[in-house]
Amino acid sequence: MTTTIANPNQRFETSANRVVGAGIVLAICIFLLVFVVNTAMVQEMLGYTRQITARVPTFFIRMALLLTAVAAGLFMITGHSYYKRNKLAVTPWLFLAVGLAFFMVYVIVPIFQSISYSFTKWNGLYDINGVWTGKWVGLHNYRILLDDPNFWTSLKNNLIWLVLYMLAVPIGLFIALFLNQTVTGIRIYKSLFFFPFVISQVVVGLIFAWAYNPEFGLLSEVWGWFFCEMRENIVGNLTRVCSVDPPSILGDSKKATYGIIAAGLWPQIAYCMILYLTGLNNVSADQIEAGRLDGAKGWKLLWHVVLPQLKPATFIAIVVTVIGALRSFDMIATMTQGGPFGSTNVLAFYMYEQAVGEGVGRYGYGSAIATVLFLIMLVYISYFLWRMYQDEKEGN
Amino acid sequence: MFPVPIEKNSAKAQIAYKLALPIALFFWLLPLLAIFMTSIRPVSDIATGNVFGIPSSFQLIQNYSEVFAKTEALQYLINTLLIALPTMVLSVGMACLTGYALAIYKFRWALPLFFLFVAGNFVPFQILMLPVVNISVKLEIMNTVPGLVMFHAAFQLGFCTLFMRNFMKALPFELIESARLEGVGEFQIFWHLVLPLVKPAIAALCVLIFTFIWNDFFWATVLIQEDSSLPITVGVRTLNGEFVQQWHLISAASLLAAMPPVIMFFIMQKHFIAGLTLGATKG
Fold this sequence. Notes:
The structure holds two protein chains of two kinds. Chain A is mainly α.
């Protein structure tokens, strides 16, 4: 490239060579991808029988070929004179290509596929020739949905989740206000209060399932302080005798959902707290002083001066809480698996159970449930996007 | 500052506050403390009802090594790392590219595509579940670690792009324009000028994605049934079924599963919080 400025013709030639060379590489890669690399052949080559371990190397070979093809394609395009003339229009698409393709294949297209599955009756299988075995049934799944008591229980529980999960926002604000001081060691307190959010929901579920255990859990212990005493029985062993037996929260279909939500609130409160702590850090001190001079304090100051400035934090807190509530799955799967008697089902878990649960495999029906859940979420997504759009317009 | 700094209050109030802090923290973390205590006591304690008192003997090492000896916990932990690390690299790497395209170039599709990434990030998992299973089956990566990585990387790209794009949008645009005027190529600008400037964002995203993927449960249950490829979250759930009533082992395994993200959080705290609270202060 050192002589390019001196000799424009040579520059043209190098880029033309570049296009041709990259084109050949691209063609070879595509040829290999499409015609030569099929799983059976590579498996034979590597001496694998048809088993799971054999898939991985094949997959990596395919990926390597694909990446080479993409790189060659990029090289080709950037060497072309058309690119040089339309640099600013073409470059963003080159940057986007890989990510957008990925996102389309795995996220955007599946949404529409799922919606289309919901109009079919299908058990997820293809016949031996690879032909789809399902049947188009129109709105049939949705009609069954309306008469399915489990669906309505799940929907009701989703609403309970949505409403009660919102408690995380005010409680998070309260803890943030409590911790917004500058005494020594407060940083450690703040991070320890945030701690539960980092732990996986499965573990939180297990911790609480154990805490709720009526025989030896945390709750029964606390219960014991008030209602139980230790007595020596006839044989001489110490046993616990309670005037009122401790409740079995997860075993009671009326209480179980609330028990799970309480467990879910624990990390969610931590999340809201950290959002508010950051927000409080950036509240303008001048305005608070001005408010104080006007005689406002306590609740009034909080409501009229501080909260308006915390609006962005509140917005994000509400968004993540709504999404968390509608995504609740892990905790239900670890704590009750939807039971007792389906009383803790939510749409997310019920869909999973119907679609791939043991001995069920109703892809069409499961997709219909998923579509309902998606439509509920879509309300919030649209609102969020609309808010973002307003921000963008202001920004420009 | 709100509320009123405690130093301005009476000495009594200050002492009360300093006492209230550890007490509140104790109750806040009580479930965690209790499970830790359970994980270091012998099984006989639980049977005799000594669940919260001082353990009759400390079995920290015994209990934890029993988990490793009796189960595939080590394999599960390695699997989780094999899932979390490549996902982190792939999704953050791709997000640098997409975020750059959407933040720096002014073309008609920039905003709609950005919103597409944001919206995709929020959809419920269940709407993606069955098609993703089908794709994985067709690519013959169902039940394998790479299969899970591919999906995670694609899905996390939504959040990563949102993050990167907003971070890059806040960079001074004049910098890029003057580089263009100097005749620097578009890819050079990206590599030599913008990437070094967004290092903090890359760090924050890496910590966040690592934690998210480490804690993932749903996709691992959907895309992996093979015992040898399971990550720790699913593994711990399975252990729960195997160790019926052996709470000292269940709690030890749970804490093992929770440990790496916690360590990550305490080491990278600044980045972690910066990432989570993105957007909580603007406007």
